[in-house]
Amino acid sequence: MKMGENGAGNNHLHDNQVFGLSIDVLPQGGSKCFDDDGRLKRTGTVWTASAHIITAVIGSGVLSLAWATAQLGWIAGPAVMFLFSFVTYYTSTLLAACYRSGDPANGKRNYTYMDAVRSNLGGVKVKICGWVQYLNLFGVAIGYTIASSISMMAIKRSNCFHASGGKNPCHVNSSPYMIAFGIVEIMFSQIPDFDQLWWLSIVAAVMSFTYSTIGLGLGIAKVAETGKIRGSLTGVSVGTVTQTQKIWRSFQALGDMAFAYSYSLILIEIQDTLKAPPSESKTMKKATLLSVGVTTLFYMLCGCMGYAAFGDLSPGNLLTGFGFYNPFWLLDIANAAIVIHLVGAYQVYCQPLFAFIEKTAAEKFPDSEFITKDIKIPIPGFRPYNLNLFRLVWRTLFVIITTLISMLLPFFNDIVGLLGALGFWPLTVYFPVEMYISQKKIPKWSTRWLCLQILSIACLIITIAAAAGSIAGVMLDLKSYKPFSTDY
User: Is the pLDDT of residue 3 over 60?
Assistant: First the structure.
């Protein structure tokens, strides 16, 4: 569920871009107040960058890891998780080297992922990158809507179970909860300069640690209570599921794990907050190592403890799959934390998409008052709110569309796997590898070039397998499915 996770990292990434100061004569390396590109001095350090990455990465993805580990077993599960962490770390260091074009210390800065692709690769690849990136963000919005409604329903069901003493099956329809989430997002998405709400990043980080720690704690408690570690070396046994199901589910587990790591979408934006010297790419490499290390440790703990507690029966979402019933108030706190995290994460993910569409529209129709005119609405006690009709209509429509799609396709695990698969190869592996080869002018068919291409092709194969597994999962869900009436 990486989405939420990535989200939080973006929040104060753009603060320093508000001041579009263009100063013609700048001493090399900037001055006391400004950096070499004329923007205000950047102040980020290894620690702030690591905090952004950890907030971005540890999100609801952590909750499906016990299920993914159960599909693969005690050997392959942790091994695959470790493999993905290594690939993520390695390709992130390649991407970090592409923050400046040309000279690593004073070359031209690229402010976003697409800028880096544009200055290193150019042409059609920029368009492809844009499509993949924005489709992924759109998908994240849908994934978040589904996940938050599942957590809201879990609170409702756990209280209803508690009240009826477990006698009532407590079926709940998911649509009203998705609509409620949509209404909240419509209100939040009207905030024009949302990326300046840096406190959101902190709130999201606290929330994600809250629910991940509760999940981990409950897993440990369950193992302690039963006194035995469940699960097998090869995962869910054939017999519980058919041979084909076992293959599809293993593929899907790969997608879930890839999704739990991908944050390359926002890596360049995080790097743009770092101060130099030392060069940004050096700082970023340290931050990547630190944050991927912490995340992997945390994932291993959550995934393995969840699997040890439930074995083959590990639920797709650790806190809402009703692996745990008691203490019910603790589960309610964890699920409320997920919802709060996702409300913020949704915005962090969608704001870049909103900004992109609005910018494009303003360039296409510069004379249209509907698109460009701001109406000032006085708010007593606050500064006036700038209402832009195009923004109001387009953002509201966007939220309504994502909410409708979520109500039509409420399959959390499969959607998460599919998103992870589709975003993983192009954004985490292919573009960083290609940009690095072009930047460092690595000759074709040299050993280094071959190794990088083998890495890229291996990841492409994993991506295709994971996507196939998720699509098979969605097909299976569609057989027993009526639109808008999904009960849990």
Answer: no
